[in-house]
Amino acid sequence: MSFELPKLAFLLPRNAEYVGQWHTVPIGLSRQFQAQAESRLFLIDAALLAGRLPRRGRFGHKGTYGHALLLLGSRGKIGAAVLATQACLRSGVGLLTVRTPAVGYDILQTSAPEAMALTDPAADFLSELPELTPYSAIGMGPGIDKADSTKVVLEQLLRTAQVPLVLDADALNLLGANPDLLALLPPDSILTPHPKEFERLSGSARDDYHRLELLREFCHKHRCYTVLKGAHTCLGTPTGELYFNTTGNPGMATGGSGDVLTGLLTALRAQHLSALDAALLGIYAHGRAGDLAARHTGEVGLIAGDLTRFIGPTLQELTTPDAF
Amino acid sequence: MSFELPKLAFLLPRNAEYVGQWHTVPIGLSRQFQAQAESRLFLIDAALLAGRLPRRGRFGHKGTYGHALLLLGSRGKIGAAVLATQACLRSGVGLLTVRTPAVGYDILQTSAPEAMALTDPAADFLSELPELTPYSAIGMGPGIDKADSTKVVLEQLLRTAQVPLVLDADALNLLGANPDLLALLPPDSILTPHPKEFERLSGSARDDYHRLELLREFCHKHRCYTVLKGAHTCLGTPTGELYFNTTGNPGMATGGSGDVLTGLLTALRAQHLSALDAALLGIYAHGRAGDLAARHTGEVGLIAGDLTRFIGPTLQELTTPDAF
Amino acid sequence: MSFELPKLAFLLPRNAEYVGQWHTVPIGLSRQFQAQAESRLFLIDAALLAGRLPRRGRFGHKGTYGHALLLLGSRGKIGAAVLATQACLRSGVGLLTVRTPAVGYDILQTSAPEAMALTDPAADFLSELPELTPYSAIGMGPGIDKADSTKVVLEQLLRTAQVPLVLDADALNLLGANPDLLALLPPDSILTPHPKEFERLSGSARDDYHRLELLREFCHKHRCYTVLKGAHTCLGTPTGELYFNTTGNPGMATGGSGDVLTGLLTALRAQHLSALDAALLGIYAHGRAGDLAARHTGEVGLIAGDLTRFIGPTLQELTTPDAF
Amino acid sequence: MSFELPKLAFLLPRNAEYVGQWHTVPIGLSRQFQAQAESRLFLIDAALLAGRLPRRGRFGHKGTYGHALLLLGSRGKIGAAVLATQACLRSGVGLLTVRTPAVGYDILQTSAPEAMALTDPAADFLSELPELTPYSAIGMGPGIDKADSTKVVLEQLLRTAQVPLVLDADALNLLGANPDLLALLPPDSILTPHPKEFERLSGSARDDYHRLELLREFCHKHRCYTVLKGAHTCLGTPTGELYFNTTGNPGMATGGSGDVLTGLLTALRAQHLSALDAALLGIYAHGRAGDLAARHTGEVGLIAGDLTRFIGPTLQELTTPDAF
């Protein structure tokens, strides 16, 4: 039990067996007081997100909501591409083009007819970066491989992209294995590692607290936003704040869950949200969609594809009703 | 706030930031009076549509409801073909044959088993017009490309078609780039451009009002019905009337939304509705399906495939109950 | 308005415009009296079907419910194969094997994983009859073509099949074009023509009454059950009875609706129901599924694939509750 | 009618026509008394399962819930692979890799994007065992064939697997035809034969009682758990207990039902449940999912794919609520 807010210790995996189920007890502190309190630790809850997702204007058209590009998939992991694609479509993007190796063509067009498929000339792995002019944000990672040709695509992307990036999965592992690539990372990129992927980027953490220190340092050094995925997903920012998520459940610990998050974040970035707003909204909505899905499937029965069905209602809840 | 009916100015994008949310206030004008008032501007609402969609007769069979042909798709945009196909099926057509390049075969037959697939001999683009005898209406555009071979297909279509046409997307862009083709347009065709596509056909508009003038001129000159897509989609007719739609929401500003409209309109034309009735019903039903879908998905989460699920209930609402 | 039962004239298409909506008025005739009245005209309603569909026994296994074979599809019409397959699966068959040309392989296995696919060596048309030993009933027709090779398959089927047959679509057109094949028809086969297909088999009808005479003669001569599809689908039997259906709606006048019926009938025959019981139950359940579907989609929006969702609940209603 | 518990005789197929519908009548025996009574016959009901499925811990991640490998499918039976895959995903596994012949690649990735596909180099049959290091449990059987190359894969699997195995369908038939393979069976494997498959393993049974004796002997000799599928599926254990299931219905007597069970059991084993707990939970949940599905589809209309939708809610019911 804790006054007003949880202690940081409650949110860390290593304390799981000592903490159990916790509750906060209001003691009458005003929200305003809390907001003024000097802290670099925040909870991502509905109050924090108020006003960050504007309502769509009456006269918006496809172009208003951006054109995302997703670089996804390799032989055997086209499913990850499908999940990221469907999640991106469900997150309000105006247009979506998906780049997969040729092996993914029929699968993508059957599973996500709303997306355009710009197939790579190589059959099994990404091998060429397409022309980037049309796009307002680019996501790369779900289902790709660490093939040499894919590393080249990533390097070209980092060198030439003029729009926001979201990087996940083997795009992160390629960065971890090639620190020279990491140096090319454009500012305000969003990275979404799980703890092992993060340690390949940052070096080993001695414990959960040290991992948070490493997260702060990494975000500062690379001027990026890093989503450290876990039970209480933690967003690190270039300026040193840490934001801990309050939504989600252990049913989401299942293959493809992260691919959905990548699609979601890329869509929000493509709609011209700031990296901070996109990351906060995306992390929260992803967990909340999982909570809504689990009401239907149970935690055990939850699969990643279920999440995409509930992204829409979740983003609707978060939309500021009175904005134009 | 406006008496009885909105002002035209409320419906135009350039006034968006000054107008905000508007309401009409009844002041006791009789519907009959309004009907007699001389105006060439109309709202597309349920009252206007009463009686335009007859109920199906008890003894109707597949042949009664027409056989539509859709010319759709190119490599990477077979999804547009899927969406137009599914929408056409949901709009009451008796039979549907879909022509796509060969790359679309498996995708179409998996996604829309109710449609027959008459695959083009070319792999990636439309290259040959099929024999047109069986069909009662033909739609062309969603997902096609501006390839030379496709231009030839369009030209052959315009020269030989004896049944109603619906043209969209790159079929319109090909018309815009080849004014000689535009001269071949059969009377009573329906065109469905968004504003940029329209300006490729009509020349640049100075402002929203000028665009409406251009719309009137274009429809008159080419004896066609033009659906200028937008927040208040506007139908222009050969005789100079403009009809503004009252359904729809900004969640529909998403890739594939227009493909759905093309399928819907082609189905209505195949069922022997007049161009005017088909256009009015199709525009309204498309927006209304979007409004019903958004109740489930939210506006942000809406994708084009959602629209097809709600076309049926919408057309049911519009069906005249007492017709034979 | 009619006493107790409709007049035959109410059920015939040519009287449609004179009859309109009709109702029956009970005048106290006992059901028993009606049953004893000498008539060869019957209505297919719930009362007629009571007791014809036994409840599944507790210890039944896959083998108890038969193994159906469906011969389906050709290039461009694999969708018809999908619809017949899904309907057959939903109608209680223990096992289902589907024979399509090779072009249908991926489509079928993606759309109906519960069915086994025994692909024909030819790419586009059926060309070889598989070994028939495992099967308890066989359906042929939806989506096939009139190719010479397919005619040979049909002929081999008629010559060698030892189990009940259901024939539809181009299987019927092949019979109509090759009267020598018709002579091979095994007794108790079920044929499911629409009026045009029927006239290719029976010769032209002068009017609706004459068509019913031709139906009686045809069923008698070929010792078969013929389902003459229409608003009031009429089943003719070898012994001269005519059964008129009371379920269904004009939304079912859409491509693929008949394919669903073929799957349904083949499944019931595979489960060892008599030709009469299978035909009566299948006709009624098909129409009833359409009525249930139309409550969700509206009549205009109904597509054939919707029917399969409601076959199960319909057959459940018809199951005799107290049988073992 | 029986006091407290059914007699064994009620549960055997050969008595079906004499037993009919039975009920138990409580006579006040305490549950504790029953638990202490010396018996090697048990009913699988909710009480027996209490505490066997722990709730997911807050900080679990994908790795916590295991990585399953499924060896599935052959040309024409990729549908069986799809069903086992979808069921495995719905049963809480952290990650799933599926090995099918190459013919199954597109089908699997379209139907189950959450699974990774590790395609066999052979087109039509399994021919090579992949490297087994990543996996925490392995299932083999649904949709495979008795091809020589597949027999070799099975033999390699039995010789090298260090993790729990689940074997079904033609994997069992290969064991039955090759008793030398049976001798390689790792202890605590789960086998899921139907009665005919079982007799190929154990020799012929004279009657239902003898079959249960053979089941006890077989499980003892091979130190395995054998799920003898039927109306009252019976689990035999290495130590001689027999557990009879109380869920399920005859609508589940349909192709693919067993494939779903294999996926379910493999997922539970991959999550580090004991063979006994996995078998008991899997058998019960499979039948219960069928009971829930039949409420929507009716027994006749039930198909195997329906079961997967209800596995999640069923496992949720069985989850121990107060575990960490």
Write the layout of secondary structure elements.
Four copies of one chain form a homotetramer.
Chain A (H helix, E strand, L loop, with lengths): L1 E2 L12 H4 L4 E2 L5 H6 L4 E4 L1 H4 L3 E2 L12 E5 L6 H12 L5 E5 L5 H7 L4 E2 L19 E4 L7 H13 L4 E3 L2 H8 L1 H4 L7 E2 L3 H8 L5 H15 L2 E4 L5 E3 L5 E4 L11 H14 L4 H27 L2 H15 E2 L4
Parallel strand pairs in A: 1-2, 3-13, 4-14, 5-6, 5-8, 6-7, 8-9, 9-10, 10-11
Antiparallel strand pairs in A: 11-12, 12-13
Helix pairs in contact in A: 4-11, 7-9, 9-10, 11-12, 11-13, 12-13
Protein name (chains A, B, C, D): ADP-dependent (S)-NAD(P)H-hydrate dehydratase
GO biological process, one term (chains A, B, C, D): metabolite repair
Cofactor (chains A, B, C, D): K(+); Mg(2+)
Task: Name the descriptors.
13 helices, globular, alpha/beta, UDP-N-acetylmuramoyl-L-alanine:D-glutamate ligase, 42% helix, 10-stranded mixed beta sheet
